Structures are given as structure tokens and as C-alpha cells.
Amino acid sequence: MINWIWFFMILSGVVAAAAQGRFDLVTNAALNGAKDAVAVCIGLISILVFWLGMMRIAQDAGLLEKLARLMRPVARFLFPTVPPEHPAMGYILSNMSANLFGLGNAATPMGLKAMEELQKLNPDPKTATPAMCTLLALNTSGLTLIPTTIIGIRLKYGSVEPTEIIGPTLVATFIATSMAVLLDRYYQHRTFDRSGLLKPHWK
Amino acid sequence: MFEAVSLISKIMLPALLVFIPLYALFQRVPIYESFIEGAKEGFPTAVSIIPHLVGMMVAVAIFRDTGAMQFYLQFLTPVLSFFHIPEEVVPIGILRPISGTGSLAFVESILRTHGPDTFLGKLASTIQGSTDTTLYVLTVYFGAVGIRNSLYALKVGLWADLIGFLASLGICSILYL
């Protein structure tokens, strides 16, 4: 699917530029896109270095295990395929808490660390596992208590009640996240057989 | 409730920065060494994401900046206005899953022209705040560990975005119209 979306975006862009007789649009867009992407990654370096350092302290101190034990019922419901004692669980729960409390900067390093730990459980390192897909579903649906970025932007444009959207946002994100978890379950059952192996069609 | 949660968000980081090392010290962890050991992984992780993100963001930029997206939108708008979806927020809904800054630009233009406290302003804010950039999260998370076959993850993310969009529309219509 991702291959097709990728090609579709590029092809429609090139056709649109050709229709206007302006191929420079494609060239500029490609160069700017690449530049932005590298800038995002450079921005990630500082965050990753800092938070992965902090997380290592937490891990060495056994804090992540504690968090995982504390939240075990949630974790087992969402990630039945991950052994409850596995280090991945601690990172997954840190990632979820960071998202929830609006520590977006911290959420990415913890999520990536969780991915890395989940990858250790993966029999086929090129293909995602059910747990990875669930973690992704939780992160893409953006469950958070306070949408801090958008509140800041509303303030910038002179909103009298910048926080008024917290309620509706919470409801919308809660609906989106629960549906994402449900859909994730549904596709998981269609994609993997009972013993957790990929059905032939997906390989 | 906002004050409480916002206070938690604010003191969470400083509190963690004290609590984690302090707890670790009591567990006799050499905290500075641990920090350095963990931090070492940051750079290679960030660098390993570059190819994935460049690939994705180039395609998104071409799609957006050449006017291709605008072209598709003009077909979509009449269909959506039939369902009483305001055409101003359609680009936000379409862009939200593929480019966070892209959809933010449309949100800002609505806040500027209509004002943040109007129905459209609140709706745009809610749509922007209620989901994350699916394509970015997918690219970064799977890219970092080298997953090529993302199975159904993209599908789930996109469905969640659509549901978040419709939920925002529903709840804002009930509250603010």
C-alpha cells in the first residue's frame, strides 16, 4: 500500500507540474522536501540523545519494570503477544504516558526504544509484528490530554478562550484512538493465524 | 480540569529529571555512566531515520507544492459539502495524515481569516489537535528498526485519522453550531 501511495503522490505531482508547464515546481519541491526531512532528523538528534540517556538510567534502576508491573492489565490487553516481563513493555508504557501528558518530545525516543525491543522479539526483522502495529496505532491516533501545540497557536492568533477546544479534542482523540485499537485488532485477526504466524497472502 | 492537567504537563519534566536519577542513585546505579551509555544510541537512531523520512517527505512535498493536491481537492469539495462538511477544513483533513506542518498552515490561515473563536476556528483546531501525522509516525517508527512490510499499520492509521476528523466535526457541530 505504501508503495502505491508514494508513487501516486510523485506521479500526480509531476503530471500537475507538466500541465502547468513548470517542471521547476517538481525540482524545488523535491529539494525542499529532502531538506526539511534532514532538518527534522537533525532536530531529533538532540531529543533522542537526551531522552535515551535518561531512559537508560530509568531502565538500569528498574523503573521501567516497575511501570510495566503497575500498568500490567492495560499492557496485557493492548499487547497480548509481548511477554509482560519483557523490557519492551516498560518502554511502550513510558511512550504512552509521555503522549498522554503532552511530553511529545519524550514520546518519540521512548517509542523508538520500544520498537527496538519489539524488533528483538520479531522472527522476521523486515516485517512488522502485531505488537508493533498496535504501538503504531496508538501513536498515530495521537491520544493526548492537552493538545499543547494547538493551544499555543490559538493564543498566537488572539483567542479569548484558547483552551476551549480541549474538551472536544479529548472526545475526538478518544474516539479515534479506541477505533484505532479496535481496527488494529480486527486486521490482526485477518493477518495472523492462531499461532501468530503470518497468513501466506501477506508475506 | 485544564489547570490540573496543564500543571502536570509543566512540572512533569523537571519532576522526572529529579526523580529518575534520585531513585537510581538509591539503587546504586552509576547514573552518569548510564546516561552516557543510553545517550550514545541517540545519534545513530536519528541518522538511520534520514533515508526513510527524506523518501516520504520528498513525495509529500511534490504532491503538495505542485498543486496536485489542490487539483484533487476541487473534486472532493462538492462531495463533502453535500455532507455539510465546510470546505475550508477539507484540506486540513486531507493533509493531516501526510504532513503535520502542511495541515497546520491551513489551520493558521483559518485562524487568521475567521478568528480562533469562531466555529471554523474551533473546528480546525480540534481536527489538528485530535490526531497525529500518521505517515510521519509510521516512517519514523518503522524506519528506525528497518521494517519494510508495515502490514496493515498504515490502513489503521488512516482510518483513525478519518474517524478523528468526523468525530471532531460531529462534536464541534453539537457544541458550537
UniProtKB/TrEMBL annotation, chain A:
Residue ranges occupied by any Nucleoside transporter/FeoB GTPase Gate domain in the UniProt entry: 42-152
Pfam families: Gate (PF07670)
Transmembrane annotation, as ranges: 37-58, 131-153, 165-183
Coiled-coil positions: none
Assigned keywords, A-Z: Membrane, Transmembrane, Transmembrane helix
Protein name: Spore maturation protein A
Organism of provenance: Laceyella sediminis
From TrEMBL, chain B:
Keywords of the record: Membrane, Transmembrane, Transmembrane helix
Pfam family for this entry, one: Gate
Protein's UniProt name: Spore maturation protein B
Source species: Laceyella tengchongensis
Residues of the Nucleoside transporter/FeoB GTPase Gate domain: 47-147
Entry GO terms, CC: plasma membrane
Superkingdom of this protein's organism: Bacteria
Transmembrane segments: 7-26, 46-63, 156-176
